[in-house]
Amino acid sequence: MIDSTSDKKDLSWFYLISSTSLVMSITALLFRWGEEPMISFSGNFQMNNFNEIFQFLILLCSTLCIPLSVEYIECTEMALTEFLLFVLTATLGGIFLCGANDLITIFVAPECFSLCSYLLSGYTKKDVRSNEATTKYLLMGGASSSILVHGFSWLYGSSGGEIELQEIVNGLINTQMYNSPGISKKKWFQPILVSNYLLNISHKD
Length: 205
Prior knowledge:
Domain NADH:quinone oxidoreductase/Mrp antiporter transmembrane: 100-183
Keywords: Chloroplast, Membrane, NAD, Plastid, Thylakoid, Translocase, Transmembrane, Transmembrane helix
Helix content: over 70%
Shape: flat
Distance between the termini: 30 Å
Order of helices and strands: HHEEHHHHHHHH
Transmembrane segments: 12-33, 53-73, 80-97
Domain NAD(P)H-quinone oxidoreductase subunit 2 N-terminal: 1-71
InterPro entries: ND/Mrp_TM (IPR001750), Ndh2_N (IPR045693)
Number of strands: 2
Structural class: mainly alpha
C-alpha cells in the first residue's frame, strides 16, 4: 500500500519500516528472555530460552541484511518492495522453524524461507547466472524436501500416527520400535540418516 501511494524515488521509507519492524521484534524477544516456556497454536509452536537464541540470531542477520542491500538494489534497478517482502517472509519462516513442535510446522517453516530463497536467488532476472542458480536451487530443494517428507512418514508411522515431537518420542518408546530387529541390526545406518537430515536443514538455510 505504501509502495502504491508514495514517491517511487523515496526508498528510505521502505528500509526504515522494515528495519524498525525487525528491531521491534528483537526488543520484544529480549524482554521475554527468562520467562517460563510457552506452547501455543495448539501445541504446534513453543517458546523457550534455547529457541529464542536462534530466533535472535535470525532477526539480527535480517536486520543487518537490509541496510547492506541498499547499494545492491540500486545497482540492479530492481523493485525494492518485493526484495524486502522476500527477506521478511524468509525471516518469519526461520523464526517458526526455531519454535516448531510438530512435523507439519517443521516442514512448512523451512519451505516458507526456502521459497523466498529461490525467489531471491533469481531476483535479478536479467542476469543469466541468477536464472541458472534459481533453477538448480529449485531442483535441489524439491529433492531434499521429498527426502525429508519420506523420513517424516517413517516417524509418523512408527510412533502410531503422532505429529508432535514429544508424542513421537513417547510413541516410539511405547511401541518399542527402537528395539525392533530391523532397526537394531542397522545402527550403522543411523549416522547417515542424521547427516542427511542436517544437510536438508542446512540446504534450506
